[in-house]
Amino acid sequence: MIILIPAYQPGTALPQLVTDLLSADPRLIILVVDDGSGPAFSAVFDDARRAGATVIGYPRNRGKGQALKTGFGYAERHHPGQDVVCADSDGQHAVPDILSVAEEVRAGDDRTMVLGERRFDGAVPARSRIGNALTRALFRSAAGGDLHDTQTGLRGYPAQLVPWLRSVGGDRYEYELNLLLRAGPAGHRIGRVAISTIYLAGNGSSHFRPLVDSVRVYAPLLRFSLSSLAAFGVDLVAFVALGLLTDSLVLAVVGARVVSSSVNFLVNRRFVFGAGRHASQPGAARRYFALVVALLAANYAGIFVLTDLGVPDVAAKVLTEALLFAVSFAAQRRFLAVRIPAAGHGAPPDHHPNRLISRAVP
Questions:
Q1: How much is the pTM?
Q2: Which of 88, 150, 158, 325 has the fewest CB within 10 Å, making it most exposed?
Q3: Centroid of chain to Cα 338
Q4: Mean pLDDT of the chain
């Protein structure tokens, strides 16, 4: 078993973590990736080596995602067939929790990644609590599963997943969320182990940049929103033009939706739900346009009711589209991507049996 620790400007908690892990299990291979920390931190990495870790890295900071992929590549070349558990370098993952995740990986199958999920009890910094709640809600919308902790850095992967891990895009904090979003379409499963929540000194050691890194993390939803906004613009222009040409609400609604939905399908398939482009295009198109018909009926009904109540056509159109946005996103995610499948035994009642698995380790 490899314990992979990406590290950027670490403190003394790193060599202590290496010492504690090897004291708990001398068979572990500890691999530390120096993510361009600079000469000022050489002593910390030297201490980690003396404690028994293998330290690799590069001179310029390239982000946590790149550090993880560098570690996966090293593991694949030098320790083929070894499972990998990733842990943070700042002491926020307790050794017993790391070993619990490792044990769950050993006990699982070769297509199931394991997350160490924090309970978020006790004194949790506000930005961490809010950030996790927001990401959890967005993940539920984008991937259809309710993960309690989408931002955990404690994760375990069977050896067979390592090539796939290296293929997923993202160089910084968005990489770990990308793994969760891409797991289902790639046919992989997500297991979970409950771990303790530890924040040291108000999480002051975190290198997460709230604005820049949040944009990266939430990019998939932002891409969908921009795509939908563009499609809405096309739909609205076509709706007004056809309404003037035909003086028919039915023809205006139907014609505008045919044009805008064709544009939206191609954009979402290629740029938003990227994994969907590898599926059969005719099959995806049939599912998508079945959705279009259903939304079209709802769209027409909404506009008809609102205009009948005296709301102007364009205002009725805008209001109806706004109400249907969330439905459209959730449904397109289902049709253009693949659901996260179940693995092993039944999931708890609050989890869909076809999406996620959860098995807490005492």
A1: 0.64
A2: 325
A3: 14
A4: 77
